[in-house]
Amino acid sequence: MSSGDSSTSRPARSWRPRTRQVRGGLERTGFSETSEALFLTSGYVYGSAAEAEHSFDGTLDRMVYSRFKNPTVAMFEQRLAEIEGAAACRATASGMAAVHAALMCQLKAGDRVVASRALFGSCQWIINELMPRFGIERVFVDGPDIGAWERALSKPTACVFIETPANPTLEIIDVRAVADLVHKAGARLVVDNVFATPILQSPLDLGADIVVYSATKHIDGQGRCLGGAVLGDLAFCQDVLGPYLRNTGPALSPFNAWVLLKGLETLDLRIERHCANAMKIARFLEGRPEVARVLYPGLESHPQHELAARQMRGWGSILALELKGGKAAAYRLLDNLELIDISNNLGDSKSLITHPWTTTHQRLSPDDKLAMGIGEGLVRLSVGLEDGDDLVEDLERALTA
Q1: Rounded to an integer, what distance in angstroms lies between the CA atom of residue 230 and that of residue 116?
Q2: How far apart are CA 95 and CA 113, in angstroms?
Q3: Which of 238, 255, 271, 295 has the fewest CB atoms within 10 Å, i.e. is most exposed?
């Protein structure tokens, strides 16, 4: 096993993406194992006191503590970096740890942050509640409105954060157009790419500086463990993000890293089925009289359908539908489902549904929810890997009931 940091990129290989998902970052020990080795260790031993000294002063590049580096975690970081096309990757204990670290590691009192309005509830809390405590100014923008971005970024800005597609309204933001404005303002653009996954969208190729993931979602894809990742250039990941993670400690468990490594091997195969099922369900729901609207980038009725077609390679596994009759109608739907489970998770092999007004975005004010496009009748559906016809039949029964 190499003692170096395999979270940074090596010389480019000619392997195609499918091969990188299975082989990227693989480092075998002297036992020549087939599967990736699982290193359940917190620390490492040194051959001498001088070796320990040089390991800590940076003259010797080796593993010193699993809060800093771990061989299994390093394999996950390297593989995801190769899939994403990033120079470097750092893993974290959860998706929210990734978002928090990616933002706070580069900010200080007096800085200014601009973010899209439609965000996951915890992301909204970090920007709207946590940052002001440290003297950081925050400004929210309606994501699809490029004019609003131009106005917001007419002042010096340190960092910009967006989700696209957004949770839970599937709002699409023009990453390339926003990135150009961000860089003119002297800022870095951070993109939460969870809904699209690295299979369907490449924010770095569109001009983003940093990409964050909740690996808990599609990367694991089977509801087994938590994890997160931050990807970007080598200087950011080593010199800005690296010390922040090292000293604040949101380290990914080696066991979770091993599970996530195995998830990456089948990511594109699962995403293909997710997308096919989601499109089938979106088409079905769009024709139902109980449904006021369906929000899915693959539908021509989606407000940013053409933009999604330009910057995504597929439509994703998540859709939202707004029911006529508000919260009562939403609850009736959820309670009458037999196959689809009520859960606030997403990206799972099992189909999951939730009511954002009362779960993932519950702590936001009613005005903030409505400003984000979240009504009391809106439900979010994460479409799984079951037979698509069974899912349609389950929804049809529940809607009819």
Answers
A1: 19
A2: 20
A3: 255
Over residues 270-292, the pLDDT tens digits come to 999 999 999 999 999 999 999 99
**Nearest-angstrom CA–CA distance, 168 and 188:** 24
Question: Is-contact 279 130, C-beta < 8 A?
Answer: no
User: In the Cβ-directed half-sphere of 219, how many Cα atoms lie within 13 Å?
Assistant: 31
Give SS3 for 232. strand
Nearest to 374 by CA among 387, 361, 388: 361
pLDDT per residue as tens digits for the range 337-364: 999 999 999 999 999 999 999 999 998 9
Q: What is the DSSP string of 245-294?
A: HHHH--PPPHHHHHHHHHHHHTHHHHHHHHHHHHHHHHHHHHT-TTEEEE
CA 311 to chain centre: 17
The count of residues in the chain is: 401
CB 399 within 8 A of CB 337: no
- Residue position matching structure tokens 């096919």: 276
CA-to-CA separations, 25 to 94, 266, 309, 346, in angstroms, rounded: 21, 15, 31, 27
In 3D space, the residue among 304, 251, 250 whose CA is nearest the CA of residue 118 turns out to be 304
Domains located in the chain, CATH noted: 1-94+216-265 (3.40.640.10), 107-197 (3.40.640.10), 267-400 (3.90.1150.10)
Residue range 93-147, pLDDT digits in tens: 999 999 999 999 999 999 999 999 999 999 999 999 999 999 999 999 999 999 9
Question: Among residues 119, 173, 166, which one has the least CA distance to residue 144?
Answer: 173
Residue 246 buriedness (CB in 10 A; 0-12 / 13-18 / 19+): middle
C-beta separation of 278 from 314 below 8 A: no
Residue range 143-159, pLDDT digits in tens: 999 999 999 999 999 99
Whole-angstrom distance, CA of residue 320 vs CA of residue 253: 33
Mean pLDDT of the chain: 95
Q: Looking at residue 3, what is its pLDDT?
A: 41
CB 361 within 8 A of CB 369: yes
* Cβ count near 194 (within 10 Å): 27
Return the DSSP state at 240: I
List C-alpha distances in Å: 108 to 93, 123, 185, 186, 363. Answer: 23, 18, 17, 15, 26
Coil, strand or helix at 166: coil
What pTM was estimated for this model as a whole?
0.94
Judging by DSSP bridges, how do beta strands 159-163 and 188-192 pair with one another? parallel
